[in-house]
Amino acid sequence: LRLLPWQRYLRAERADVSALERKKNVLCCLITRILKVEKQLHIDNLVFRVIDACRKGELGPGLQFLSFCCHSVDVLSCVLHLLNQGYLRRQEERPHVLEY
After folding, report:
1. Helices (H), the chain
2. Residue 24 CB contacts under 8 Å (≥ 6 apart), including other chains
3. Distances in Å between the alpha carbon of 10 and those of 1, 5, 17, 18, 24?
């Protein structure tokens, strides 16, 4: 077993953090774009749409990115982040429906 030198490890860790941050930003952008169009959507449908858009590499009209693997946990984590930031809200009578 050979360990990477300390400096290389730090550079690799920073690159991983940067990639995760970009992925989070793309997912949050997808979520808000989809909900801006739909106005309200069941959380399951939203997750499926975001995963499908990631798989196809579609961000929205005129914008594209390289397709990447995303899982429902990634999308749900971003949904919770957007809920906490106040960008999204749940319907009081139907908490499984999200609104922009």
Report:
1. 6-38, 43-56, 72-85
2. 77, 78, 81
3. 19, 9, 11, 12, 21
- Using DSSP bridges, classify how beta strands 40-42 and 63-64 pair: parallel, antiparallel or unpaired: unpaired
Q: What is the pLDDT along the chain (100 residues), one digit of tens a residue?
A: 455 555 555 555 666 667 778 888 888 988 999 999 999 999 999 999 998 888 877 655 545 555 567 888 989 999 999 999 999 999 889 989 999 8
Q: Delimit the domains of the chain by residue range.
A: 21-99
Q: From CA 62, how far away is CA 4, in angstroms rounded?
A: 41
Domain covering 21-99 assigned CATH 1.10.238.10 in the classification: no
Closest of 18, 12, 25 to residue 78, by C-alpha? 25
What's the pTM value of the predicted model, to 2 decimals?
0.73
User: How many of the other CB atoms lie within 10 Å of CB of 30?
Assistant: 24
